[in-house]
Automatic annotation (TrEMBL):
Organism of derivation: Propylenella binzhouense
Alphabetized UniProt keyword annotations: 2Fe-2S, Iron, Iron-sulfur, Metal-binding
GO molecular function: 2 iron, 2 sulfur cluster binding; electron transfer activity; metal ion binding
Protein name as it appears in the record: 2Fe-2S iron-sulfur cluster binding domain-containing protein
Domain of life: Bacteria
């Protein structure tokens, strides 16, 4: 049973598969960047620029079932992904995805080359 002061009660949950194949259920604060949620829960993601879209070290592979449910990437994000390793059609930068209630259940995998 959640505590009354539980900040994650009713929060959207992001399902993140780490590079070792384990899936983590991460309650997320609305308005945070997905990259911040991943770091806050202690998963291994470099995210060098801290969310400024100035690197590609928060690269993730989004489950294809979610592709049409996410906002389209900006030109800046697309250009930055050129610097990433193992880029796929479902590649996104986690710093460019903001947590909203509509992202509840989002599934993604940490891309290779983003470990600290």
């Amino acid at each position: 049973m959640p505590r009354e002061d539980d900040p994650y009660e009713g929060a959207p949950v992001i399902l993140v598969t780490a590079r070792d194949g384990r899936e983590h259920r991460l309650p997320a604060v609305e308005g945070w960047r997905v990259m911040e949620v991943i770091r806050e829960w202690g998963l291994d993601i470099k995210a060098e620029c801290g969310g400024a879209c100035a690197c590609a070290t928060c690269h993730v592979h989004v489950d294809p079932a979610w592709a049409d449910r996410l906002p389209q990437p900006s030109e800046e994000e697309i250009a930055r992904l050129d610097d990433a390793f193992d880029v796929r059609e479902e590649s996104r930068l986690a710093c460019q995805l903001l947590v909203t209630p509509s992202l509840d259940g989002l599934r993604l995998r940490l891309a290779p080359g983003t470990e600290r």
